[in-house]
Structure formats: structure tokens, C-alpha cells
Design brief:
With 157 residues, the chain is mainly α. It contains eight helices and two strands; from the N terminus they run H-H-E-E-H-H-H-H-H-H. It has a two-stranded antiparallel sheet. The model has no long low-confidence stretch (mean pLDDT 92).
């Protein structure tokens, strides 16, 4: 990642909603048995932002973070997670030879529920975020949660 991209990402992280507590992190880790939500591997696991920070949406809150093994996290980067998972399904090395379809489905159900949405509504929300990326300046001007902005504008798409 270039230093300019790192700086922009850091600036975005500073301005996006961040209300994740230590208790939230513990609950998320416990929910996924202290392992990667997709592979079940316990080593080298980090919390990933489902909606990428670089999109100017999401943030660091329970409905947008989940445990992901570092190699998978690096491969996801700032990609649309619903497109990225197709790559993972094709790459045995990335998915550690495991069938991850059930785990992916459970992850999406969990994140949808954390956001108070159905699975279909959650998918639409993520698509909306992908189509309506925001700059750091836009995020600074409007500090609301992306879900609130989406609900206000979802019929505009």
C-alpha cells in the first residue's frame, strides 16, 4: 500500500464512526470461537472491516467488523466483499482447502442482524456503499452512520 493511500486510509478511519468497545471485541471474538470467521483458523487473526474503510462508509462498530485470518484480510483489501468472496472460493490456498460457503452465510446473517437488517437488505446496503463512496471531506461533513445515510437515500438509487 502506498504511503499516500495509507495516509488517506488513516484519515478516513479517524473520521468514520468508531464505537467498538473492548467488550464488543470480546463478544465478536467469542461469537467466532476466537478464530477466523471463514476458515476457523486461530493463528494470525485480525478484525476486518466488512465495508472497507476506503469507501468512506462503515467504520469500527460491531456491525462492520469480524475476525479474519491475515492472508484473507490482505487479499480482501478494499474490494467489495461480495465480489471478493468469489475469488476466495476459487482459490484453495486462500481458503485453506476448506469449503467456506456455510461460514460465509453465517457471517452475512450475523452482520445483517447486527445492523438490524435482513440478509437481502444488508446486501443492498453494501452495494449502495460501493456505489456511493465518500471522500474524507464528505465523511468529515456528515458524521452519521452509513446505515442512517443509506436509509435516507436508498430509494434514490
Amino acid at each position: 500500500m502506498s504511503s499516500k493511500r495509507k495516509q488517506s486510509r488513516l484519515e478516513m478511519k479517524r473520521n468514520l464512526p468508531s464505537n467498538l468497545t473492548a467488550e464488543d471485541i470480546e463478544n465478536i471474538q467469542r461469537k467466532f470461537n476466537y478464530s477466523c470467521s471463514l476458515t476457523g483458523i486461530r493463528d494470525n487473526v485480525t478484525l476486518d472491516h466488512f465495508i472497507p474503510v476506503e469507501w468512506g462508509h462503515g467504520g469500527f462498530y460491531p456491525g462492520n467488523v469480524y475476525p479474519l485470518e491475515k492472508t484473507l484480510n490482505a487479499s480482501k483489501s478494499n474490494k467489495n466483499p461480495f465480489e471478493w468472496i468469489k475469488e476466495v472460493r476459487r482459490d484453495k490456498t486462500l481458503r485453506r482447502g476448506k469449503n467456506i460457503d456455510q461460514q460465509w452465510s453465517e457471517l452475512i446473517q450475523y452482520l445483517a442482524s447486527e445492523n438490524g437488517l435482513t440478509v437481502d437488505e444488508f446486501k443492498q446496503f453494501v452495494k449502495w456503499c460501493a456505489r456511493n463512496k465518500r471522500t474524507v471531506e464528505e465523511v468529515r461533513r456528515d458524521k452519521r452512520m452509513s446505515l442512517e445515510i443509506y436509509k435516507e437515500h436508498r430509494w434514490d438509487v
